[in-house]
Amino acid sequence: MNAATHRKDLMKALRANAHRHDLWSVWSDFVAMAAIALSNTVDLRQRDEREAEYLRIVGRYRADEVERFAHALGALQLCFHTGGHDDVLGSVFMELELGNKWAGQFFTPYHLCQAMAAMTLQDARQRIDRDGFITVLDPATGGGAMLIAAAEYLAQQDIAVPLSMHATAQDIDAKAARMTYVQLSLLGVPAVVVTGNTLTLEERERWYTPAHVMFGWSQRLSRRHQPDEEHPIPITTEPEAAREPVQFGLFEEQCAA
What we know:
Elements: H1 3-17, H2 23-39, H3 47-58, H4 63-83, H5 88-95, E1 105-107, H6 110-120, H7 124-131, E2 134-138, H8 145-156, H9 161-164, E3 165-171, H10 174-186, E4 191-195, E5 205-208, H11 210-214, H12 217-225, E6 246-247, E7 253-255
Parallel strand pairs: 2-3, 2-6, 3-4
Antiparallel strand pairs: 1-7, 4-5
Helix pairs in contact: 1-4, 2-3, 2-10, 6-8
């Protein structure tokens, strides 16, 4: 079976659960439960709070409907396993015609994100050789397509993404942030995903992908700003601005007028 078949299975499972529930609620609950299930494998500090939210959501569904949610998550994982990097949730969101429910928001086609990543990350290997890794930031992440495209571009250059790229994603909408978290988690991208307003520095939720935790990225990021004898920071004569995170977001989130 190919990625397109698994994608159809994902949509079929969600539509089946919409027989008794509004499709928008089914989508929101699926994304929330998937994010919580992935987070609770690695983030012990927030496990109890998130598990309580999971139980509140799952309590609204029958056993067969809960099983379909599990099938949908499996189908999503198989989409990535067979098809590689892609904004699966963003494209499914649009195909299910849920955009009108989200104040007219739509997700940028993935091929545009690929083009943007290729233009922005042309010097990625040099930066990784110099600093050990690069950081990328999308302050209006939507479903995470731009960061997925960044990870795909590095992988195509034979760069090990879990060790060489760290992503920070933020979105004011919790559903969008959780979509990003689920996709980056399943793709093995180290990332911190924040729900909050980028302009006002508001933060309501923070999600750490499994790859962030397993590959010790909190410590690696901290050492960049706190040099010591064991882990020296590479000395550079370049201006500090050249070492700032690569920033995306030009195309990722757009709203209809």
